[in-house]
Write a structure and sequence with these properties.
CATH topology: Rossmann fold
Number of domains: 1
Structural class: alpha/beta
Order of helices and strands: EHHEHEHHHHEHHEE
Oligomer: single chain
Length: 232
């Protein structure tokens, strides 16, 4: 039996104040560092030898991994960074307040942008300084850089990554992925076979840890290893 653990990054200031973050490279707060250490202790207490670590290319994911992995015994696992684990690209909403967006567009629209299945945010233009920064960080994507994604888009983005992970697990490696709220939801949709309605209720607190095991018939939930509310 091999295991895949999915971890949401530690808290950032924009998480705390309710802002759309997306691909913005927001650092963690001190509370976020505590979240990361707690996730690491959860991994250590699972009794599973973790062999390989994946992070997104965003600093809050990379830093969460760094704080968490210090809690593991033995040598630090090998680490791979992959843009496909990045948070959902929130388009022109990036940096905006949830409350202000609700006042302008209505709370129902904001709920759909945040938790809906196929509702994309307002797109961002290529010459926007925020998007130019994302281009600079991800030159390998060229014209394929997202301009605003729905949850459904993220599901399709992470699907091939998950197939690669299945190969690693089949080779006997236990894998940890440090990712983001919507990306974790997208992975759960695939792994759990969730419907769009079920995906709408999914929530993961900062530092949440969810573990799956690869059995003969595919993935199955092994445990939710943190006190976070992961189901609604």
């Amino acid at each position: 039996m091999t295991y895949l653990a999915l971890i949401r990054h530690g808290e950032t200031a924009w998480n705390r104040t309710g802002r759309f973050t997306g691909w913005a490279d927001e650092p963690m707060t001190l509370k976020g560092e505590e979240d990361a250490r707690a996730a690491g202790l959860t991994l250590a207490r699972s009794g599973v030898p973790w062999h390989l670590v994946h992070t997104s290319t965003l600093q809050r994911s990379i830093d969460t991994a760094a704080f968490a992995l210090r809690q593991l015994p033995g040598a630090r696992p090998a680490e791979i960074r992959d843009w496909r684990l990045n948070e959902r690209h929130v388009g022109d909403l990036e940096g905006g307040s949830h409350a202000e967006a609700a006042a302008t567009h209505g709370p129902d629209q904001v709920e759909q942008w945040r938790w809906g299945w196929d509702v994309r945010p307002p797109t961002i233009t290529g010459d926007d300084p925020r998007q130019l920064g994302h281009h600079a960080r991800h030159p390998e994507l060229g014209d394929e850089l997202p301009v605003g994604e729905s949850l459904q888009d993220v599901v399709e983005r992470v699907r091939p990554w998950l197939e690669e992970i299945r190969t690693q697990l089949s080779a006997g490696l236990n894998v940890v992925a440090f990712t983001h709220g919507t990306t974790l939801r997208a992975l759960r949709v695939i792994l759990e076979g969730s419907t769009p309605a079920e995906a709408f209720t999914m929530r993961a607190a900062n530092g949440a840890v969810v573990r799956f095991e690869l059995a003969a018939r595919g993935f199955r939930p092994a445990s939710c290893l943190s006190p976070a509310d992961l189901s609604g």
